[in-house]
Amino acid sequence: AQSVAQPEDQVKVAEGNPLTVKCTYSVSGNPYLFWYVQYPNRGLQFLLKYITGDNLVKGSYGFEAEFNKSQTSFHLKKPSALVSDSALYFCAVRVTGNTGKLIFGQGTTLQVKP
Amino acid sequence: ETGVTQSPTHLIKTRGQQVTLRCSSQSGHNTVSWYQQALGQGPQFIFQYYREEENGRGNFPPRFSGLQFPNYSSELNVNALELDDSALYLCASGLAGGNYNEQFFGPGTRLTVL
After folding, report:
1. pLDDT in tens, A34-70
2. How far apart are CA B26 and CA B104, in angstroms?
3. Scanning A60, A94, B61, B69, which has its CA 20 to 30 A from the CA of A110?
């Protein structure tokens, strides 16, 4: 069965410091991986995706993610965190086939302190 | 902001009632998916519609049903509401075909069942 795990419920970093939000996955076949961000009382906003190619994927708002096939991980990173990055982050894997179904992790709350 | 809109923003119902939630897809998109996000959890896939037919379904009972209209707008209907149906309901639009297409989410409808 395909699944996604986000091992940390919460990540706290100081503004200006690098941040990492962890994600591991389990899929059969090639993984199609996504990161979304959710602000309070808002829907999900797409950040970035990995389909194939370069293991380092760059996305919106200065975020990037590193795909590691051997460790089945897709960690979200940013070199310098902003207070405005504080939000709920979801990692998701696309189920192969035509349904478009995404399987989400349970989410990680990022808190960036001034 | 995505071009996906949802109505209403909030809704309060009592147990046993029926509810209809609405979604308007982003221009040019031809699929719509619905997700349920319970408090503190990641979104769970309910189903997807393509060409006005259900194109995949998650682990939800038949009292969850949907419609997609020729203009690609969509409805989610839930009959015989239960307390556990209280959640944020998200719709997402996308393009059929290919596992690499990201989905764009609306702001969601917050349903409270009393």
Report:
1. 999 999 877 899 999 998 888 999 999 999 999 999 9
2. 8
3. A94
Q: What is the dihedral of CA A49, A63, A59, B5, to 10 degrees?
A: 80
Structure tokens at A23: 């994600």
- B19-38: pLDDT as tens digits: 999 999 988 888 899 999 99
Chain A residues whose CB is inside 8 A of the B42 CB are 4, 90, 92, 104-107
C-alpha B17/C-alpha A20 separation (Å) is 44
Q: What is the pLDDT of residues B83-97, one digit of tens each?
A: 999 999 999 998 876
| pLDDT higher than 70, residue B16 | yes
Cβ contacts from A onto B, under 8 A:
77
- Of residues B89, B91, B68, the one with CA closest to residue B2: B91
| Residue A40 preceded by cis peptide, ω within 30 | no
Residue A55 Cα, gap to closest chain B Cα (Å): 15
CB atoms closer than 10 angstroms to residue A88: 18
B98 touches A95 (CB < 8 A):
no
Chain B environment of A7 (Cβ under 8 Å): none
Distance CA B36, CA B62 (A): 15
Q: Contacts of residue B43 in chain A, CB cutoff 8 Å?
A: 44, 90, 102, 104
